[in-house]
Amino acid sequence: MSDWRILAAIAALGLVSYALRAGGFLAAGLMRESGVVARFFRLAPGNLFVAFVAAACFEGSWPSVIGCIAAVVVMWLTHKEWAAFTAGFSAAALAAAILVK
Amino acid sequence: MPMTIISDMASDSKPRFTRTAFRRGFLEALPFILSNGIAGMVMGVAYRSIGLGFIPSALFSVVVYSGTAQAVTLGMWASAPPVIPMVLACIATNARYLLIGAHLHQLFGKLRKRIMLPALFLLADASWLMTTADAKRHGPDAGYLLGASVPMAIGWMGGTALGYGMPVSMDGPLAVAAALLPAIFVASLLPIQWHGRRSILPWGLSAAVAVLVSWLIAPSWAMLVGGAIGTAASMARGDDV
Known about the structure:
The complex is a heterodimer of chains A (101) and B (241). Chain A has two domains: 1-31; 45-101, no CATH class. Chain A is built from three helices and no strands. Chain A has helices spanning 3-26, 36-78, 81-99. The two termini of chain A are 30 Å apart. With 241 residues, chain B is mainly alpha-helical. Chain B has two domains: 19-193, no CATH class; 195-241, no CATH class. The chains are: A mainly alpha (101), B mainly alpha (241). At the A-B interface, helix 1, helix 2 and helix 3 of A face helix 2, helix 3, helix 4, helix 5 and helix 6 of B.
């Protein structure tokens, strides 16, 4: 993929991110707390994250499963993201060293 | 019913933008340089592991500036990145900012847009939470929002650049683990999203549908379809958060 296409993809994602940050502020009067859209936005993140992790574990095999479980457990225990990343990465690398030939 | 998240602000509730509040926010958010820096370094390592150049990697964290959206879109990256699914994923994972922005309008709606719109570029979940708490104590001051956002942005953007340049050789098991960083990153967010037993059914549905879609259709659509089905189940049951 050429550099300009990569930069265009980043620009599109950046534009969307900023539009969401500013859009809620600008359209505050239009959004209703009990509306279907607002409820969807409140409920969606956890489900999206689970779906992403499940698909990644399915594609990535055992090192992915072990790394994700380690990250979840350490985050649960410590509430520290950096500790969860470190544990997840280390566990995935260890699993890959043992299981991937 | 219009958005009404908080109502108990300090007695002087006229919104302002002051240097004093900027300084207060900046100092209180300084620890985020370290925590966001470490997370940003993970992202930098992951970007290098997929062969992205330094400039695009740094730009990603500067322009998109969202750990969740970056991790998810990184997980979908391919030799020909699926831009439309990536944009949809970015919208889905960052849609909470619409609600956060709507809440900030309650605090700062009377300030000029030329002050607020640039400040919103650096809006982060943590700076919003800190600003909400500060508004209760000192009244709404957008200087605090910007001041608290700056260290978080420095940590994330600087961490990505540092992580990209780290002298770590990504071969063998380390390369396998680096490729899994987006999933590990998102997995670490799951405990924050857990709402007890009522999460079991929608999460189970989301995971099952995502695996099926990944297997039968394409991995790039797995998160969107699986997440949408799980969310629809939550809504049909009358859940809310």
